[in-house]
Write a structure and sequence with these properties.
27% of the residues lie in helices and 31% in strands. The chain is an alpha+beta fold and 214 residues long.
């Protein structure tokens, strides 16, 4: 009897975990996560979307924020004129929801993202346990000479990376944006870096870099 009760409780916990979607989390989000959007702003965005209207609201800086896309597991918000927020749900060990929030700011053509993870109650999680953010070395082609590697580092004054969720719900990509290609340096810089963004995949416990990428 006791064993049956435990099994029922575990099943209930798993069903509750799966019942959470990104819309629920967006409504319950504390203002501290996205300070420019109030609870009323977030509800208005969803109401406008449900009504087939453009989901634009006036944020706390008297600028426009817009809900661009939303489905059961992910959403994308144009947060300010030069920044965007994307949220996607993943499941730890196939049952515990984990929200990945990517905040990307673009300035003077240079995009840089910050990645944070939260549980279903918006408590910040230790991101290092779920993802190792790549460094410049990860984007440099294999087999380069020491001089070429040093050159790439000199041409990279800031370690900025743009992160984007892909169409595959278990993956996201990382593009190095810290190097500016100008003049004669363009071809040399491009030849030193891997041509495609790095692709990471969720394995149920953390994100891992897919191997054999160019």
């Amino acid at each position: 009897m006791r064993k049956s009760v435990v099994i029922c409780l575990l099943s209930l916990c798993m069903s509750v975990a799966y019942a959470i979607d990104v819309r629920d989390m967006f409504i319950a989000m504390p203002d501290s996560v996205l300070p420019l959007l109030s609870g009323i702003n977030r509800l208005d965005m969803l109401d406008f979307h449900d009504s087939g209207m453009k989901s634009v609201v006036r944020n706390r800086l008297e600028g426009n924020s817009e809900l661009v896309e939303i489905d059961s597991n992910s959403m994308r918000i144009r947060y300010t004129g030069n920044s965007e927020v994307a949220i996607r749900l993943y499941y730890y060990k196939d049952s515990v929801p984990v929200a990945c929030l990517v905040h990307t700011v673009t300035s003077n053509g240079l995009s840089d993202s910050r990645v944070n993870f939260y549980d279903s109650n918006w408590n910040r999680l230790d991101g290092s346990r779920l993802l190792r953010i790549p460094t410049l070395e990860d984007f440099i082609r294999d087999g380069l000479s020491r001089d070429s590697v040093s050159y790439v580092h000199r041409m990279s004054p800031v370690n900025s990376i743009k992160v984007r969720f892909t169409d595959n719900p278990e993956q996201m990509e990382f593009e190095y944006t810290g190097i500016r290609f100008t003049g004669e340096d363009s071809l040399r810089c491009a030849s030193c870096l891997k041509p495609d963004p790095l692709l990471y995949e969720w394995n149920g416990k953390r994100f891992t870099l897919l191997k054999n990428q160019k």
